Amino acid sequence: MSISWYLVVSAFVFCIGAAGVLVRRNPLVVLLCLELMLNAGNLALVAFARMHGNADGHVFALVVIVVAACEVTVGLGLIVALYRRRLPIDVDRMRELQG
Amino acid sequence: MAELLFFIAGAGAVAGALGTVMLRNPFYSVLGLVSHLLCLAALFLLLRAEFVAAAQVIIYAGAVMVLYVFVVAYVGGADEPLSSPGPGLRVAAPAFAGLLLVELCIAILGSGLKALDGEGAPYEAGFGSPAQIGELLLTKFLLPFELASLLLLTAAVAAVLLARRRGGLADPRALSVADVVRGPADWSQGDAPAGTMQEAGGPAER
Amino acid sequence: MSATGWAWVVLLAPLAGTLVIALGWRALPGRAPGWIGTGAITVSFAAAVATLLDLQSRGEEERQLVSSAWDYAKTAGVDAELSILVDPLSVLMILVVTGVSALIHLYSVAYLASDRGYARFFAYLNFFVFSMLLLVLAGNFLVLIVGWAFVGAASYLLISFWYRRTTATEAGIKAFVINVVGDVGLVLGTYFIFQGTGTLDFLGSFEAVQDSFGRNDGELVAGCCLLLVGAFAKSAQIPLHTWLPDAMEGPTPVSALIHAATMVTAGVYLIARMHPLFEQAPAAADVGAIIGCLTLVVAATIALVQTDLKRVIAYSTMSQIGYMVMGVSAGAYAAGLFHLMTHAFFKALLFMAAGSVIGAMAGTQDLDRMGGFRRSMPFTFGCFVVGGLALAGVPPFSGFFSKDELLLLVGDRGGWHWILYGFGYLAALLTAVYTFRMIFRAFLGEPVAEARALERGELHHAEHHTNPATGEQEDTDVGFPGPEHHIAERAPQMRAAMAVLAVLATVAGLLQIPFGVTHLVDGFLEPTFAESELYERNPSDGQIGLGLVLGALVGLGGIFLAHLIWVRKPGTSAALRARLAPAHQLLARKWYFDEAIDILVVRPFALAGRFCQQVFERVVVNGFFVGGTTGAVRAGSAAVRAAQSGYLRLYAALLLLGGGALTLYFLIASS
Predict the structure, then answer these.
(1) Is the CB of C652 less than 8 angstroms away from the CB of A97?
(2) A23 part of a folded domain
(3) Is residue A83 part of a domain?
(4) Looking at the domain assignment, is residue A99 inside a domain?
(5) A86 lies in some domain
(6) Is C647 on the interface with B (CB under 8 A)?
(7) Residue C378's CB: how many other CB atoms inside 10 A?
(8) Among B175, C203, C599, C628, which is most buried by a count of CB atoms within 10 Å?
């Protein structure tokens, strides 16, 4: 398959992830959708690496995976802390940035 | 053969993504993501990125998702009602996503990159193998490699900090998220006059 | 040193006096500021005499000297320098100013001895003398305007000297505001004249006036009338005269110096100095003559019914200045200036004597409460009589000669000027009446309690210090008069000053005796007025004789009339007041000028100010411009703030939207 197919799949997944971020209220699921978007990016990176015959894209994708792991760690830690404090686990109820 | 595999993997990836977004139970969403990741690994293999595929399965699907499962089990996450999305986003978000998709497709397919139509550049043996990745990591991308490890350290420290059990509150009053990352001394208990709404613990109706 | 060198000394000695007193008053012991001030003016007077001698030693043609200190501005068309003009007119003025000022300083050393503001008084007084000298020595319009403004400021400072008295500060403000109106007139007049002649210098302007303007040219008449506005404000002529009676709130030496001898004569000096301009614009000169005549009559009538001692003398000043203004406007320059000189002597003497009487009355100035001081204050009485005779124009006192010559030359102009002549003598009769009314009421008759106390040797002191006009309670600290009062009989400095002035008031008439016996003033001033066509005039001997006889009759007749009404038949005054009640009301309310100015000027301005503040300032500026700007900014920021809703998902949406837009842009840009 030509590379453009992979890129189209990547675009699909990215857009589905974006819609998910906007629609879901549970922060866990929002994080999951963020993962979707990251993965879409990874797919695009690897596809381009294949296109150029250059493995730099793979390294980039690895680093993205590392970053995703870190972000998940911190994000889930936040959610756990929220749960411990008995705050509502709801993205719409966290409005301290208002104003 | 490759085309068939591609279509199966691609469809699986998209289906997993849709499942992540649309399923109401967070557990099911996590499972959807796991399947998405596995299909993505297959796509990576089709693109001759063996190491990345393996890393994806082991790290992403293996470690990160397990972490997610643990947290979902702990936190619970009740079923969200379907009609919950906030003001106006119920219709707007999918529409917007659709537009974004169209735009990206135009960008990809309409661009003048000839190479996209091909199957990729000729590659030597060992492309995408651990040896090559390792060599790149230690020579060309040494700095990003070290920085990534630093990032991991930071995340570990952050996780420990966040998970620290505090002294607890006498009464479970409503607190703001900002209080969570501040120390106990800043929590305003009782009726101390607060300067800003944030310090007072949120808007008055709470 | 040359004449101009001495003139600079004359000018700078008072300035030095001011600076020394003002900067070093803490270090100067006791009465030193008073002596320093007096000394500075005495030095000034000596230098003025030296200037006179030097000037007279030159030939007739070389008696107009200009000396410049430095240039102010030499740009295209404007040549402004700090220059003084030393000629007979200015020398006469500086002699009168410094001479009378020195005597008044000496008087004040004793009069204000117990006042807490002693040093401040002498600093202000010296500053005033400096300003007045600057005004009369000015060699161009710029320095004149500077001196004019300084004099106004000094007058304000001195009128409101007892600044904790509300009446005094109000009077000071009133004087200053009216003076500013005059300043505006002066500056605008200068502009008109400068526009035509092209130079600010006096001598240059006077030479150029005939070439630059035709006779009675509209612009020149306008300029001269504006100069007259300035002159009228400074000299308290109608309609800018309302400040002078209120200015009696200042201490008596201030009234003597500023409002009798010097500042109010600045207008007369101005007209005399600008005589080439006025001769080229006779319409303006006629305006001056008419206003002068009007003032002298109106002021004389008001003085007839005043009950405040100093105010009688103030209105008398206004009337006499009216004579001078009328005289110099009608071309009787030497006579007008001669009357200025004699008036300075006898009016300052009258004010000083009045200060002595007020001291005996412990600060009260009410004529109704005075009486019978003849035996207890003989020296003061004598000075009052000398001054009164000079003012009434009784021969051989100085006022007789100066007033008669003035009226003679005014009438000699012919035509409608005879009306002014007639009014002049009418007012002279009234002058004699009100002057001796004042003297008879204060000194003759039954002695009042204060007079009896003084006969026993005790100077009356008020138990509670009050404002004599309003009766408000006061203390004697800074800003109020001091606790002690001083009278001439007990203070040698006051006696010395008054004695000198009494002698001068008596004999100064000898300087200019008609029929050509002596004409020192005429001859002295000749070089200044040489090219004036109105200067050399020879009225017939018959007219001169008629004038002299008329003047003597009027003066003596007035005294007789006053004696009749207030001494011989004491009830006459009350009866007259009852019979002529409306007339008395009109005069007592000062011809309603204050009310008229209030309605015509003050209220419209107040209304305009209120309108500007409430409508324009509040609605347009604050509401529309300022409020509109802030409102627009607030609205804009409120609109932007709507995006800060705190919804995480909204932020995410905006992020993605932005990213999409960027992609779109690049997509379009690259295609």
Answers:
(1) no
(2) yes
(3) yes
(4) no
(5) yes
(6) yes
(7) 13
(8) B175
- Reply yes or no on whether the pLDDT at B166 is more than 80: no
- C456 located within any domain: yes
Chain A residues near residue B122 by CB distance under 8 angstroms? 53
Residue B83 has pLDDT above 60, yes or no: no
* Same domain, yes or no: C577 and C599: no
Taking CA–CA distances from A97, the nearest residue in chain C reads C646
Q: What is the pLDDT of residues C42-56, one digit of tens each?
A: 999 999 999 999 888
Q: Residues C343, C454: one domain?
A: yes
User: Does C614 lie in the same domain as C528?
Assistant: no
Provide the CATH number for the domain around residue A80.
Answer: 1.10.287.3510
Point out the residue among A69, A77, A81 whose CB comes nearest to the CB of B64.
Answer: A69
Do A21 and C646 count as a contact with CB atoms less than 8 A apart? no
Where in the sequence is the domain holding C623, given as residue range(s)?
A: 594-627+646-670
On the question of pLDDT at B194 being above 60, the answer is no
Tokens 């900014």: give the residue.
Answer: C633
Quote ipTM for the complex: 0.92
Contact B93 A24 (CB under 8 A): no
CA–CA dist B75, B73 (Å, integer)? 6
Tokens encoding C56: 């007279």
With an 8 Å Cβ cutoff, are C645 and A98 in contact?
Answer: yes
CA atoms within 13 A on the CB side of C135: 31
Closest-CA distance of chain B to residue A60, Å: 9
Distance of alpha carbon B13 from the chain centroid = 15
Residues in C closer than 8 angstroms to B103, CB to CB, are 660, 663-664, 667
Count Cβ atoms below 10 Å from residue B189 Cβ, excluding itself. 11
Q: C638 lies in a domain? A: no
In this prediction the pTM is 0.70
Angle at A41 between CA A38 and CA A42, to 5 degrees: 90
Which member of B100, B106, B111 has the closest CB to residue C656?
Answer: B100
